[in-house]
Amino acid sequence: MAEAEQYNFAYLDEQTKRMIRRTVLKALAIPGYQVPFASREMPMPYGWGTGGVQVTAAVLTPSDTLKVIDQGADDTTNAVSIRKFFEKTAQVATTTRTPAASVIQTRHRIPETPLAEGQILVYQVPIPEPLRFLEPRETETRKMHAHEEYGLMHVKLYEDIARHGAIVTAYAYPVRVEGRYVMDPSPIPKFDNPRMNMAAIQLFGAGREQRIYAVPPHTGVVSLDFEDYPFEATKAAAVCALCGSAESYLDEVIVDDTGGRMFVCSDTDFCAGRRGAMDAEAVA
Amino acid sequence: MSTQNPCRDVSGKPRIPETPLLSVRALSKSYGARIGCTDVSFDLFPGEVMGIVGESGSGKSTLLACLAGHLAPDAGEIRFETRDKGPVDTIGLGEPARRMLARTDWAFVHQNPRDGLRMGVSAGGNVGERLMAVGARHYGRIRGQALDWLGRVEIDADRVDDRPSAFSGGMQQRLQIARNLVTGPRLVFMDEPTGGLDVSVQARLLDLMRGLVREMGLSAIIVTHDLAVVRLLADRLMVMKSGRVVEAGLTDQVLDDPQHPYTQLLVSSVLQV
């Protein structure tokens, strides 16, 4: 038997996928609510996307096209290994082009190209509970969610302003989903927060913490703030050194050991697409 | 339920309010076969401060926890006079409404300020938490109120961004009081508020609490084993032993002319300086 045939489609057995799909449906029915699920051991360490991989495995069909990104890039270790994993265990087509993908698993970024209906964005989540560092008791945070007691979340933002003069939380910035649940959007930069109001389905998987939550298409996602300190989606004040984009989220890259540095798009597919278009124009 | 001012009668003259703020009937709580407290009944009127004294294990903390909704009593009735809905049964009220009461109309001052404060959050954040919990979303106003309250409990304004872990025990206790009173509650539960503080700090805290209670017209239930504290703060006194109320009455009356043998023992046990 060939190695690939020894695996069930997408690695997990059918009963497990069924269980995860049920959880996903419940999560979609209650936007922003963390649904517990029986997370499985995956052939990778916790913290490497075990939650996202299980969700991807459960939603993947043989006709899907998969894209995996890590901090926006298609070619970093985490993205490459997860893409290879599904190439081997599910034999699905893979791509790096955002519009061509039907399922996109992401670690800590939303692709720059707007997603369309029919696409699924799967996030890897390390800590699903937005209140965790303020209230360590799980019994208490569940009650706080149940009773909509979210004052504590603003205490965190208050502390930011009192100490630094502005809300300095730059990633995993808490949001309120459809006026009800406060949700951790996973450690995406707050630049991406406004872009969570999208046409695609967003699924969040936390493997170690055994929680799945979701934002259905066209669902209101509002970043928490104060009336006199409104939310601001921030990025580095520069343009991409490769493609010249002023709109995309930028990574700072150190290029030598004498302090040289440059800013480049964190979304490699978006950057390559723009450079390709510029080359085509130059030829024509 | 009439909506008129409870402190004035129909002709507008001040009167003793007739409806109690808190009314407790036959309250009991046991831990398996052991009695926590049993058959406790009393009324607390607006603006009144009641002390509960007794030895360790007499059931006073159990009683307070039942009243504040931290423990579910086995039997009995607790009725609280709410601002909008009149008297409600707080036991059958349901958790969301009871938790709402606990952060608006009620306040709970713990013996150990570490139980009542968030030690990792600045003093201003601690005071502002209750405001944010009831929907305040304007940073400037929250901070203004926090500074105002720090002033009222005699904490310097330049300590507003310090964490409580950098405060002395007395300051932590004053901060806890500010954090509790910022939303203007009507009923304050205090569990040994001066325990663990040295006498000069105790005196200052008592002075402060007496001022706040009078100024805000608070009702309070103070659990303590320190008779000097109730002498200073409480209008009325309940003496508990083995889970039962053995004597109740006006503070001076109970302390100066104790009737029950246990109360006599308690009063005579106070060390004279």
Question: In short, what is this structure?
Answer:
With 284 residues, chain A is an alpha/beta fold. Chain A contains six helices and twelve strands.
Report what the structure shows.
- With 284 residues, chain A is an alpha/beta fold.
- Chain A has two domains: 2-223, Rossmann fold (3-Layer(aba) Sandwich); 235-284, no CATH class.
- Helices cover 28% and strands 18% of the residues of chain A.
- Chain A contains six helices and twelve strands.
- Chain A has helices at 14-29, 50-59, 77-90, 138-146, 151-164, 268-283; strands at 35-36, 65-70, 93-94, 103-107, 120-124, 175-177, 181-183, 201-206, 211-215, 221-223, 250-254, 261-265.
- In chain A, the strands form three sheets. A seven-stranded mixed beta sheet of chain A has the order 1-9-8-5-4-2-3.
- The longest helix of chain A is centred in the first third of the chain and has 16 residues, at 14-29.
- Chain B is 36% helix and 24% strand.
- In chain B, the strands form two sheets. Chain B has a six-stranded mixed beta sheet, with helices on both faces. A four-stranded antiparallel beta sheet of chain B has the order 2-1-4-5, covered by helices on one side.
- Chain B has helices at residues 60-67, 95-103, 113-116, 123-133, 139-152, 169-181, 199-216, 227-233, 251-256, 261-268, and strands at 22-31, 34-44, 49-54, 75-82, 86-89, 106-109, 187-191, 219-223, 236-241, 244-250.
- Chain B is globular, with a radius of gyration of 19 Å.
- Chains A and B meet through helix 5 of A and helix 2, helix 4 and helix 5 of B.
